[in-house]
Amino acid sequence: MTAPSPSRPPALLRCPICGAAADPDFRPFCSRSHRDRDLLQWLDEGYRIPGRPLIDEDETGLDTPRSPD
Questions:
Q1: How confident is residue 45, by pLDDT bands cut at 50, 70 and 90?
Q2: Residue 35 has pLDDT above 80, yes or no
Q3: Fewest Cβ atoms closer than 10 Å to its Cβ: which of 22, 27, 47, 67?
Q4: Are 57 and 36 in contact (CB under 8 A)?
């Protein structure tokens, strides 16, 4: 068993998926399946950080090849 972190005791660590106590082997998750589930959310772009909309490439002409001069 690992020693508790001075900044955050183990009783306060909860799985962000289900709220169960975190397992030290899969911290901050309670199990491998919840850790993998979170990773798949990131890989499938299920989690997004809000920001400004991107400029459409068609409007800027960035996708149009340049003609040689």
A1: confident
A2: yes
A3: 67
A4: no
